[in-house]
Amino acid sequence: MSAPSSVDPEIGTMNAASLAELDDAAITALAAASVERLRIEAAGPYLLIAEHAGNLVPAPWRDLGLAAPYLGTHFAVDIGVDALTRRLSRTLRAPAVVAHCSRLFLDYNRPAGEWDFMRPDLGGIPVPGNLAPDAIDRRLRTLIAWVPLEQAIVDAAAGRQALISVHSFTPVMGGVRRNVDIGVLWREQSPFVTSVLKTLGAQGAQAGLRIGDNEPYDWRQAIGYTLNRHGLEQGRACLYLEVRNDLLADPETFELVSRTLETVFATVAMSLWPKPAVAV
After folding, report:
1. pTM of the entire structure?
2. How far apart are CA 193 and CA 170, in angstroms?
3. What is the pLDDT of residues 188-222, one digit of tens each?
4. Per-residue pLDDT tens digits for 145-192
5. Distance CA 1, CA 3 (A)
6. pLDDT(228) > 60
């Protein structure tokens, strides 16, 4: 894919006036389609959050002027996370909140003032629809993709013992191969984080998986809006779970990773919160 082919030359016609024509009913419908709630009535101690699970760009934004293949890349979506979150929600009997909108449309896990809240480029390839979003555009994206996800997480997090934000990462970044298969990212230590690291370290080794402690990213050195807002600021135990995306793309390794994580989080729940926990 070459950079010139990524740009829709007609994206400039998608202006503030056309977006302003969206009425309340259309905005409500788009907002409803942007988030999905799974097993909200489940009694398990965890809430799973998948804020980068989808690659949807609502139709009025015309794929942000990008050629369709770009919306299948890691720039647009955490590959494999939708399937993994659904699997863990089912087997752990845990509620989950799954975002459908692409992080290119709006990245909920970033503060609104950050450049990649609506990132303008893909490693040098421009995202035409994100080069100069005006106030109307930003307001509509917030109403459609941010507000429903925020409310869904607030509702589902009530009464939960721990939040797990599920993500995937690329095997290579900046030409450097990452020597991690599953990463546990944390900012503040807790019995939950300690137990997950210990249990996943042991179970991962048995499965031949390399486990990273604040790798491939160190949350202590990065911004993580979702769990800062709904985890740490609310006094809830929390962590970001990162899985190498090529492991999730292959059915055999997807099964290995899923079974390992199911066992780990069920074991941790039975140890820390035995009453509501469920075994798998």
Report:
1. 0.92
2. 23
3. 999 999 999 999 999 999 999 999 999 999 999 98
4. 999 999 999 999 999 999 999 999 999 988 889 999 999 999 999 999
5. 7
6. yes
Contacts of 169 (CB under 8 A, 6+ apart): 74, 78, 178, 183, 216, 217, 242, 243, 244, 245
Query: How far apart are the C-alpha atoms of 83 and 172, rounded to whole Å?
Result: 22
- Lateral strand order in the sheet of 96-99: 35-38, 96-99, 46-50, 162-169, 237-244, 182-185, 211-213
Residue 186 contacts residue 193 (beta carbons within 8 Å): yes
Q: Is the pLDDT of residue 12 over 50?
A: no
- One-letter-per-residue 3-state SS of the chain: CCCHHHECCCHHHCCHHHHHCCCHHHHHHHHHCCEEEECCCCCCCEEEEECCCCCECCHHHHHHHECHHHHHCCCCCCCCHHHHHHHHHHHHCCCEEEECECCCCCCCCCCCCCHHHHCCEECCEECHHHCCCCHHHHHHHHHHHHHHHHHHHHHHHCCCCEEEEEEEECCEECCEECCCCEEEECCCCCHHHHHHHHHHHHHHHHHCCCEEECCCCCHHHCCCHHHHHHCHHHCCEEEEEEEEHHHHHCHHHHHHHHHHHHHHHHHHHHHHCCCCCCCC
Q: What average pLDDT does this structure show over 76-82?
A: 98
Band (pLDDT 50/70/90 cuts) for residue 64 is: very high
